[in-house]
């Protein structure tokens, strides 16, 4: 194995780590609590676009449960980053504009993480590679 191949392998392992750790973290900290305690979360969720608590919570669950699972698997990873990035930007800029960077640091770090995945893609250690190019650029 030459240096170029080692660099590519290290990049793919790094992207795998980023996808899996970031996706599972978002799922565990935000997604599963919303999904598993849906009725209590209906009373707590902010509704900045006046869509109704049920639809807003359902969209948040889509972004924080289904999308991280797709990213972890490496299927449509770039596309799956978009709802997450949207939810993060809404939370940071519309729902909590009064937060300092320190107060919103978790959200900003997630924004950096999922923007990185969006830019770099899932890498070669992803299920999309197994699907004959159907998801190659997603």
TrEMBL record:
List residues traversing the bilayer.
12-31, 51-72, 79-99, 105-127
Q: Which InterPro entries match?
A: DoxX, DoxX-like_oxidoreductase
Q: List GO terms (cellular component aspect).
A: plasma membrane
What superkingdom heads the lineage?
Bacteria
Topology relative to the membrane: Multi-pass membrane protein
Query: Could you tell me where this protein is found in the cell?
Result: Cell membrane
The record's keywords, sorted A to Z, are: Cell membrane, Membrane, Transmembrane, Transmembrane helix
Family listed? Belongs to the DoxX family.
Q: What is this protein called?
A: DoxX family protein
Q: Which source organism does the UniProt entry give?
A: Pseudomonas lini
């Amino acid at each position: 194995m030459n240096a170029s191949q080692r660099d590519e392998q290290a990049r793919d392992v790094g992207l795998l780590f980023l996808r899996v750790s970031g996706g599972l973290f978002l799922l565990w900290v935000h997604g599963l609590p919303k999904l598993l305690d849906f009725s209590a979360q209906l009373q707590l969720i902010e509704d900045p676009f006046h869509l109704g608590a049920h639809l807003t919570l359902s969209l948040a669950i889509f972004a924080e449960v289904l999308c991280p699972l797709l990213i972890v698997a490496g299927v449509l990873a770039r596309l799956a980053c978009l709802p997450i990035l949207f939810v993060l930007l809404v939370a940071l800029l519309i729902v909590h504009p009064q937060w300092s960077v320190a107060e919103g640091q978790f959200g900003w770090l997630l924004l950096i993480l999922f923007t990185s995945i969006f830019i770099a893609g899932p890498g070669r250690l992803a299920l999309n590679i197994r699907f004959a190019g159907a998801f190659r650029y997603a």
